Amino acid sequence: MLTFHEIYERYSRDVYRYSFWLSGSADDADDITSETFARAWVGRNEIRTETVKAFLLAIARNLYLNQKRRSNRHVDLNPDQVDPYPGPDRQVESRQELERAIGALRSLNEVDRTAFLLRIQHQLPYEEIARILQLPLTTVKVKIHRTRLKLAAQEIGETHE
Fold first, then answer.
1. Chain-centre distance for alpha carbon 86
2. Can you give the pTM of this predicted structure?
3. How far is the C-alpha of 123 from the C-alpha of 154, rounded, in Å?
């Protein structure tokens, strides 16, 4: 069994990165990450998912949604604010591509964006994503497929303009 320190070392960057993409704020991502691990520590006997990573990401998502409900305000991603950890910004070839990618992700509704990020960025199996989002497996697969098609269509449209 892993110690809390080992779990934190292994998953804190993933939780931070995921929180950053959801919230669009480094400060909020720090808060969500800290609170995620505090809640995971308190509820460590209640882990109901197959992987610790999925459990942590589910906590982070719930914290983000609670924060969003409380604040009842919309926070846009700041294209000038870069994730300090290696992530999608290092995978794109230029700053302009990064801005397009952020814009495309922000144009998705929260559930579609979450499903897509959990599958693509965090490589969670569809079954875990369905559990986190509390949706049927087929619905999750369809959402991710349609999101891929939508993002691909946006990329083609912007490339040919």
1. 14
2. 0.56
3. 23
| Distances, alpha carbon 29 to alpha carbons 18, 90, 92, 144, in Å | 8, 19, 22, 24
Please report where in the chains the tokens 């087929």 appear, as a residue: 138
Exposure string over 44-74, b if 16+ CB within 10 A, otherwise e: eeeeebeebbbbbbbbbbebbeebbeeeeee
Residue 57 is given by DSSP the state: H
The predicted-structure confidence for 1-52, as pLDDT tens digits, reads as follows: 667 788 889 899 999 999 999 888 889 999 999 999 998 888 766 665 568 8
CA 60/CA 37 separation, integer angstroms: 9
- DSSP secondary structure letters along 11-29: HHHHHHHHHHHHHS-HHHH
d(CA 161, CA 157): 6
CA distance 98 to 104: 10
